[in-house]
Design goal:
Distance between the termini: 62 Å
Order of helices and strands: EEEEEEHHHEEH
Structural class: alpha/beta
Low-confidence stretches: none
Mean pLDDT: 75
Shape: flat
Radius of gyration: 25 Å
Strand content: 15-25%
CATH superfamily of one domain: Hexapeptide repeat proteins
CATH topology of one domain: UDP N-Acetylglucosamine Acyltransferase, domain 1
Length: about 130
């Protein structure tokens, strides 16, 4: 199995060996051997997966313990200690205020979506 990053593109006729890692947004136009990490547009060989895993293992963002291999069966207290330095996701603006409220426009005659408008505009039009 290979890992394909988000929005990576594999062109027809390309063959990837086992355990390849394709970076997000990469455009793969050539075939690559097994255990390759590839990135870029066009994609090029970066390093082997063993070197990549060793480099990522020592990253601050990686939660790894050799005693608890994947699938992760780490005790909850140890996992909580490891997660203490991971920043929490901040809610996006839309999540804070909720989805926009859309109401039909009573003055519009037709069958299109163009007759829908935001609720605050409807209130202003009614004043």
């Amino acid at each position: 199995g290979c890992f394909l990053g988000m929005r990576s593109t594999i062109l027809p006729g390309v063959e990837l060996g086992d355990n390849c890692v394709v970076a997000a947004g990469a455009t793969v136009m050539d075939s690559f051997p097994a255990n390759s990490v590839i990135a870029g547009n066009p994609a090029t060989y970066v390093c082997s997966t063993s070197i990549y895993m060793e480099l990522r293992r020592h990253s601050v963002a990686t939660i790894y313990d050799a005693l608890y291999p994947f699938p992760l069966k780490m005790p909850p207290d140890l996992l909580a200690a490891r997660m203490a330095n991971v920043p929490y996701k901040l809610p996006r603006r839309r999540e804070k205020r909720g989805p926009p409220s859309i109401t039909p426009n009573p003055d519009f005659r037709g069958n299109g979506v163009a007759g829908l408008h935001r609720h605050d505009q409807a209130e202003e039009a009614g004043k």
